[in-house]
Amino acid sequence: MQDCPKFGIVFIVTKFGFLYMYEVSTASLLYRQKITDQLCFVSARNATTDGMIVINRGGQIFSINVEENNLIPYINSASHIADNKQLSFKLAQRFHLSGADEVFKQLFNQKIASSDYAGAANIARDAPGTLLRNQDTINVFKNLP
Asked: What is the DSSP secondary-structure string of 73-140?
């Protein structure tokens, strides 16, 4: 078992070659796959990629990593994850990941429509990059009553 603090994920590889990836705060199973038919006998954290390296009895070396640009879109499209939209939003917000742009925009517009301007400002603050931290958002706040 290895943690991936960069994304809030835990990797688990069983000795029989099954890979499980869990999101830490909710213990949601993100991914599972049998990666080898041979016994896995050693694993270590890959500090360079914040992933995991596994070696099986046959001498095969597996590098297990998270693709940063694909994590949020994968969670959004995964039907096996309970409340996947909320989970992807929380991960994107907490770890400043891209891929949840539409969710951020939708929540921002909902907060503005319900007159929760402080909540809208918090959404804009937590949005990755310049998605909501731009001149258009400033103009939205300027035009409020």
From this structure: HHHHH-TTSTTHHHHHHHHHHHHT-SS-HHHHHHHHHHHHHTT-HHHHHHHHHHSSTTSSSSHHHHHH
- 8 Å CB contact between 116 and 86: no
Question: What's the distance, Cα to Cα, between the start and end of the chain in Å?
Answer: 53
Q: What is the pLDDT of residues 11-62, one digit of tens each?
A: 999 989 999 999 999 999 999 999 999 999 899 999 888 899 999 999 999 9
- 2-66 to CATH, choices 3.90.1150.10, 2.40.10.480, 3.40.1050.10, 3.30.559.10: 2.40.10.480
Number of H helices, E strands in the chain: 5, 7
Q: Which of the listed CATH numbers 1.25.40.30, 1.10.357.10, 3.40.50.510, 3.20.20.70 matches domain 67-145?
A: 1.25.40.30
Exposure string of 51-62, with b = 16+ CB inside 10 Å and e = fewer, is bbbbebeeeeeb
